[in-house]
Model the fold of this input.
Amino acid sequence: MNRYPLWKYLLILAVLLAGLIYALPNFYGESPAVQVSPLRASLKADAALRERVEKALKAASLSPEVVALDGNSVKARFADTDNQLKAKDVLISRLGEDYMVALNLLSRSPRWLTNLYALPMYLGLDLRGGVHFLLQVDMKAALGKALEASTGDIRSTLRDQKIAYSGVSREGNMLLVKFRDTDARSKGEAEIKQHFTDYALSAKEAGGEFVLQATLKPEAERRIQDSAVQQNLLTLRNRVNELGVAEPVIQQQGADRVVVQLPGVQDTARAKDILGRTATLEVRMVDDEHQISPGAAAPFGTEMFKDRDGNMLLVKKQVILTGERINDAQPGFDSRNNEPAVHINLDGVGARKFKEASRENVGKRMAIILFEKGKGEIVTAPVIREEIGGGRVQISGKMSTVEAQDTSLLLRAGALAAPMEIIEERTVGPSLGADNIKRGFDSTKIGFIMVAVFMIAYYLMFGTISVLALGANLLLLVALLSMLQATLTLPGMAGIALTLGMAIDANVLINERVREELRNGVTPQAAIHAGYDRAFGTILDSNATTLIAGIALFMFGSGPIKGFAVVLCLGILTSMFSAVLISRALVNLIYGRKVRLAKVAIG
Amino acid sequence: MEFFRIKRDIPFMSYGRYTTAISLVTFLFAVFFLATKGLNFGVDFTGGTVIEVHYAQPADLAKVREQLAATGLPDALVQNFGSSHDVLIQVPLKQNLAGAKLSEQVMDGLHKQDTSVEMRRVEFVGPQVGKDLVENGALALLLVSLGIVGYLWLRFEWKFGLSAIIANLHDVIIILGFFAFFQWEFSLSVLAAVLAVLGYSVNESVVVFDRIRENFRTMRKAEVAEIIDNAITRTMSRTIITHGCTQMMVGAMLFLGGETLHYFAMALTIGILFSIYSSVLVASPLLMLLGVSREDFIKPEKTEAEEVLP
Done:
């Protein structure tokens, strides 16, 4: 009665083998590495880049252990941090600004493991050190900006249509358009309704004035808020690239929050500075009169800037417009020839200035320059074909749809859509991270040894089997965490220790049940069978309740608590498997074959 | 080896009056301290800034305080943390200082005073975040409680679910009472431990309840009190040994896990100790009080999971 069919043993063996393979990378440890990734969409990390990296390192007589292509980056692993830092400097100077060179840690596990996607556990910030920011996007400001932009647009639309109005103003989250008579109002209403579909309109008379109230429709409000968050995410991503962080996490949390995690970053002041900085855009005229001579200084009154393809352009110092005047930039198509284009929407002041400048400079080129970190880069430099009024500018010509998208993103993302505030910061220094790992590991180890010694002394052979099952549980849990690449935090490590302590419950239940059956005078074989059978229902119930707690923690927990919850839930699953199936298989293997079993060693 | 060779069932149910009195008194004490002293909420919940720094030599707290006062933070709390080399600085939320900038100012000031100072950890939590965490914590507690009652209702009977959750919420209140009495810091990880205890100590009740249900089927002639006594006595060995093993793990964390895990493990320790007591001596008398009877199981409830076992 206590025999397993062969397939069951094979299944358990297969699971254990898989567990061993996926847990293995954790034992190799990590080495310092340098990661090179391209900053432009047009550049790719490929074999050519790997060769360049290899050559650059060779030229500096640095010998990396491995240089490998991994996703969209090339990673070079070194034996120690000294060589790593040297390599970083070499690569930065050799590869130039188009690539991001970041410090990282790379697993030392052999390639065949990496090819099986067997990676070490992903350590949270509290274990590896780094910065965590939670930023809140100021939605009121985002809406205010949109309303402010509409005021100017409504004004110029009414003026263009020659509809007499006496004023457009913003009051709270409402726009008030004032007219002198109902006739003008109804004309204005029709016009606004047609062009400003985001607004809900209602007419009102107040103090002898005919007022049109415009409020944002809820769906438009949502869209504006959503795009504000999206734009801020994009801007943050661009900025974090500058910091040279190997594996940054930048994601939306809830409706109006953004999480930024920068593993390994210690200089929080710089990180905050870069995240909070506002980039600026400038519109200037290109100087096509002078020739650029390489190496020579720019002629008086001009500056030299690189465009996105790396060509140098001479640009006049006089600024026509700054980015603050740009309300929006969207990719689209030229209505005349269907070529990809970027539509820019300027505010009232911007529109007026732009009209003047374009009238005076028809046929000349205009440059839009993005300034970040005090360094300018030309986003695009189109030719002005005609005078442009109304604040709606279209840039087209020699652009692919992708480029149109990129350009409009850059124009928008140069600045934040709405201000952001840091509402949570958690920084862990590297020494504390290393200490935390050691403490978590030590307490698990000591706890495990104590439990093992006690179980073996108390239940003899059955205790040994329980301990083996517990060891398998630990192995499977580590393998599962590595496989899922769930973030392991310090509370997560505590979760591992706790699940192990709780997992032993299943074996104690079984062993006690077997003892009890033996005491009642049942034969050993029947006692083993009954013990496992009867204990199972109890094990199921008690694990289910813990699972409920784990799931609730996962749903409502944040950060490190989530890590604890993940480990708790996974640990329950692995402990069910190991405590019931693996320990039973061992018992069956040892006792199951003996027909006349007179005694079992259960203490 | 066997610690518990109990020949006759211990009449736990006849001690019901005393055990209920004991839990009532502990419970009232816990509620009293919670009401008068309140929980010492950590920065996770209240908002504010915590900075942990490390000095190469034993730190001079008075000098650190002096420096902080010069930085414009006279109300900062400065204390040793774990060792004499480590200092923990707590600054409450301030209106006039941008929270995120504060840690830099403090570190700059301390660095000027002593270049050996090393930043170990900075936590800044804004007021919005703390509020969210409190709400989420309460929601999680509610959800766990409802989930457990629901599960036990499905698997057993509503009387079991109700008495188990009362017994275990009693544990939770007592843990909180300890934290209020000693004014230990109540952080997010302590909250996690409390919720884990809730899930874990229900195990205890479940094991006893399982036996009670089984006994109702096998001990046809016995009184309800006898059935419960027998169930408790026969699971007692397992209870003590399981909790002993879990406690070994938790104890390792308590002593070796460092400051961060210390209170987490402390909450678990209290939880484990009281869950032994409550599941046996609170949940079971409650079950009697609610009038559990054989009729609750006479219904052909043959949905036992035992058949699942291969």
